[in-house]
Amino acid sequence: MSGTTPAIIAENLHKRYGGTVAVDDVSLHVEAGAVLGVLGTNGAGKTTTVEMIAGLRRPDRGRVGVLGLDPRRDRAKVRQVLGVQLQQAYLHGALTVAELIGLYRSFYPAPRPAEELLELVGLGEQRAVRFEKLSGGQQQRLSIALALAGRPRVVILDELTTGLDPRARRQMWKTIERLRDEDVTIVLVSHAMEEVERLCDHVALLDAGRVVAFDTPAGLVSRAGAENLDEAFVALTGKELEEAQ
Amino acid sequence: MSTAIETRRPGARAWLTLIQCEAKMVARDTAGLIVPIGLPLLILVTSATAAGDQVVAGGRTALDLFVLPLVLTMVIATIGIINMPSFLAYYRRSGILRRLSVTPASPVMVLVAQVVVSVLQAALGIAAALAVAGLLFGANPPAALGRALGVFALAMAAMYALGMMVAAVAPTPNSAVAIGLVLFFALGAVGGMFGGRQALPEPVAEFGGWLPFGAAVDALSAAWAGAAVEPAQLLSLGATVVVGAAVAGLLFRWE
Fold first, then answer.
1. Where is the ABC transporter domain (chain A) (predicted)?
2. B28: closest chain A residue by CA
């Protein structure tokens, strides 16, 4: 895929909260149609990084481009082509799954059909259930469906499968593979090595706000002289990757 | 690559869907209905019983000229300045606004949907209160109905503009209620909410008549009597709408 324009460019991003440096000079490029996994322990700066790419947080320094647009300055344009699943977000609690899907679809000119969205995340049977009555995993799946409602060309998913049961997790993986087949560019924040190995073309390993390694999953393993990605992670960061469930 | 992306803002269908969704949220939250629908009736009944039925001017009684304008102003000020911002602040706190911020929905859409749904509820409550005022307490309609409706709409817009300003600056739902209450009582106190402005020191009473609460009461009272409304009062209300909406739009935060 070399030679194509990057769909996402992040250059020298810095972000500090009070005295704490959350992101310290992070640069990332994601080719159009590629899947990038962002790995790291809690507090490594993953969420802050992707939220700066999504235009939710203003970098103290550095530059972000999504399909050649600045997500803060060109907000109206970027929002049409970028779908985001946030780690910390809530939806109208008293609305049902179907109503929320209808609402979020209405924001886009050519949305994905509601039935397709329900099927992608396996919530067909919960369509008449209010958001506040859904389990945590179901709420997360709905949040993913809403990120895909506008047929985005770029998708940012923060903690795709954390907290999902194995069946739902495999279903989300299939969904990501389907998006990949549609040439959607995807940034995946993850705790799960298996997920990253299966889905991602490249992995950015974050530690203490910096990118300590950027490679293909196989490249990371061989670079670290490890047997698998788990071991590579420990070798490259000196930390165990806890699976936040 | 960017040239391929056209700016297409959400259209009428999106606005309508958001308004419908907000209305469903409100209808399913029974506690939230108490203030806009129950409050007008409560304030009316407690105030109207004290008003005499002697004609003051133009065939209108003290109830028509003093009590009803004050009741209506109190109701729209409560809903606009205290009730509406608390909902918006809750949306911000819970992350609903944050989630909407990564969609093409604009702040204006969110604010307008909130106001529309709030106006619908308030209209229900006020209609019920006015019906009771007419049927049980013998209240008369305004001598200048069109003028009264116009003044009322402008006053309502001014109160919502103040409320949107509160919602824009308040960091938490609790602080939204606190700021709203302070603003409500301050405007109300100098605007004649506690026993009429004539009881206040002259400069304060004069000043209070210029502020939105006092201006709304006086302008409604004039319209009810069929008298001309003072341009200064309309100017005060109009300026509040413009300033409030501008500040709310500039300071709007998704989180």
1. 8-233
2. A94
8 Å CB contact of B1 and A5:
yes
Class of domain A6-237: alpha beta
Query: Is B5 domain-assigned?
Result: no
Structure tokens at B239: 């300026």
Question: Chains A and B: how many Cβ contacts under 8 Å?
Answer: 87
- What phi and psi, each to the nearest 5 degrees, are found at residue A84? -130, 130
B18: which chain A residues are within 8 Å (Cβ-Cβ)?
Answer: 103, 106
What's the pLDDT tens digit per position in A5-28? 799 999 999 999 998 999 999 999
Q: Which of A72, A96, A107 to mutate: most B Cβ within 10 Å?
A: A107
Identify whether B117 is part of a domain: yes
Q: Is residue B95 part of a domain?
A: yes
Cα A217 to the chain's mean position, in Å? 17
- Kindly report the number of other CB atoms within 10 A of residue B192's CB atom: 24
Confidence of residue A4 (pLDDT cuts 50, 70, 90): low
Q: Which residues contact B204 (CB under 8 A, 6 or more apart)?
A: B190
Residue ranges making up the domain that contains B86: 31-251
CA distance B1 to chain A (A): 6
Q: What is the ipTM metric for this complex?
A: 0.91
Distance from CA of A94 to the nearest CA of B (A): 6
